[in-house]
Design brief:
mainly beta; disordered C terminus; 8-stranded mixed β-sheet; 3% helix; single chain; Jelly Rolls; 46% strand; disordered N terminus
């Protein structure tokens, strides 16, 4: 899921920069400039649904620059050539004045993301799921703490069901279709995703560690084409699987680096933006 400040339209969502094995292979561990978590997939296996639960984490904000993050489950989007991704989750952002805000959203790439009219508080227990039958996509999100639920079924122009994903993301912002950069990641401390499972179109269900498929552990590392503002580089690291392969934590950490000199224009845009909206497509 991407974030768009004052530029509505072309937004980059879920762009992975994989290291190591080719995109068609499933490695045990890869790095990305904006995703952290786990993905499962297998040749000739299609997925019908994915689910997980987490507690909305608190944010550590400052009054120097805005930060952004998203926690979600989804189907598709692992392959760099994919033109679809079905996802639903929560976000945790910090404004330039250091005020934290949380919200919920869903997205069917390449369509823009849509906000869910549901209040999300720190500490709330969130359960999210995506189900795809044909081209009908059902996204569902429940705040078990506040006893609020959302579910919607949409007919999608295209779908990708070649992977199931459990992800913490650093969203992206684009000036146009060809110029995008990763936004600063919100310091969320650590978030535990549990009850993670997926089901294939043949009805077989399993946890992330199931022998029905292979799994990839994704670590978010700054580098390559990642655009880092204000000298802050964030890392997000998933733990080993626990709970019979159905749970893992993602932990935030940061280092200081020199900011790229070519991003002064984007930096001023982010500093002056009064609203950040989810939306975008996979490239």
């Amino acid at each position: 899921m991407s974030r768009l400040a004052s530029f509505k339209g072309a937004v980059l969502a879920a762009t992975l920069a994989f290291a190591g094995a080719p995109a068609a292979a499933l490695a045990d561990s890869v790095t990305s400039t904006n995703w952290a978590g786990y993905v499962v997939r297998k040749n000739r296996v299609s997925f019908r649904s994915v689910v997980a639960t987490w507690k909305q984490p608190p944010a550590v904000c400052n009054n120097e620059y805005p930060t952004f993050s998203a926690i979600w489950v989804g189907l598709g989007g692992y392959n760099q050539n994919s033109n679809a991704l079905e996802q639903v989750g929560s976000e945790l952002d910090c404004s330039v004045s250091g005020i934290a805000s949380a919200s919920a959203w869903y997205e069917l790439v390449p369509a823009p993301a849509t906000n869910i009219a549901m209040r999300i508080n720190t500490g709330d227990t969130i359960k999210a799921s995506v189900t795809v039958v044909g081209r009908r996509v059902t996204v569902a999100l429940t705040d078990a703490t506040r006893h609020r639920s959302f579910s919607k079924t949409i007919s999608a122009a295209s779908v990708d069901v070649t992977s199931a994903d459990w992800i913490v993301e650093a969203p992206s912002e684009c000036l146009n279709n060809n110029f995008c950069r990763t936004l600063p990641l919100t310091d969320f401390g650590s978030v535990l995703l549990s009850g993670a499972s997926a089901q294939t179109t043949t009805g077989r269900r399993g946890s992330i560690s199931s022998s029905l498929w292979g799994r990839t552990k994704i670590t978010l590392l700054p580098g390559g084409r990642t655009y880092i503002l204000f000298g802050i580089a964030a890392q997000a690291t998933p733990s080993a699987l626990t709970g019979a392969g159905s749970a893992f934590a993602v932990t935030y950490s940061q280092t200081s680096v020199p900011p790229p000199p070519l991003l002064s224009k984007l930096a001023s845009v982010t500093r002056s933006a009064s609203a950040v909206r989810p939306g975008g497509r996979r490239r």
